[in-house]
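Final report, Chapter 2: Outcomes

The project's central promise was a pipeline that accepts a single protein chain and returns its three-dimensional structure in a standardized token representation, suitable for archiving and comparison. That pipeline is now operational. To close this chapter, we reproduce one record exactly as it appears in the project archive, with the input sequence first and the structure output second.
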Amino acid sequence: MTPKEQWLLLGLAIALGMGAVSLYLHDRAAAPEAVAFETRVPAKPKAVQMPLQKPAEPPPAHSAAPPENAPPITAAEAAISGGGSIDLNKAPPEELESLPGIGPKLASEIVRFRTHTPFQSVDDVIEVPGIGPKKLEGIRPLVMVGRHP
């Protein structure tokens, strides 16, 4: 590069730098006018008068029999209400699936496990792969172990 080209390149760089500084200063000077913040004191909320409402009526007393159009309850719901327990050694997979946290896979694991080793107590179900202490505690009040088949 010749000295003449060097001087030309230096002049171009200086002009470019001065243009950038000028643009920066111009934008900075214009910023306070462009962004105007308005400070407002929020108004106090107005008091709202609510119409008086009658107290809710207590629900009607339940009869012992379910209504005619009520869906059938699951075995787990029956166990919760004191209507019975699910026998881990005899319940079909569909009935086991009604237990909280037990899906088709775990129900089939329970059935597969009990065919080789019948459950002697509810605590034995923790030996089934996929059932841990938390799940056992969730189903404990709903299940029981009767005589093995």
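Archive annotation: Residues 1-36 form one domain.
This record, like all others produced under the grant, will remain available to the consortium after the project formally closes.
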